[in-house]
Amino acid sequence: MYPYLVFLLIFFGAPTLLLGWHMRRETARYRRTALWLLLFVCTAGWFWDWLSWRTGLWRYDTAPTLGVWIAGLPVEEFVGFYVLSTALMFLVVLTVFRRTRHV
Questions:
Q1: d(Cα 60, Cα 63) in Å, to the nearest integer?
Q2: Could you tell me the residue range of the domain that residue 78 belongs to?
């Protein structure tokens, strides 16, 4: 098994799915905002990680990964930290916004 992918799916994937299901109406209303956010995070985040990896500041252990690399980074990095964590933070902000909007 691939522990890095399992970790990301348990701690980012499951909460994102649960909160996404709970906030499905609000998520539909802010679909364009979510897409712009993902575009920005994927672009800036990829460049930052790639630069850190390229200069030797950061390294990835190949043992716990799938072994699939995209532009110098493991595919788990894209799935877990760019897509799932960004979606989770977006949903958390939407939840806080929804809860405080009626106060």
A1: 9
A2: 3-96
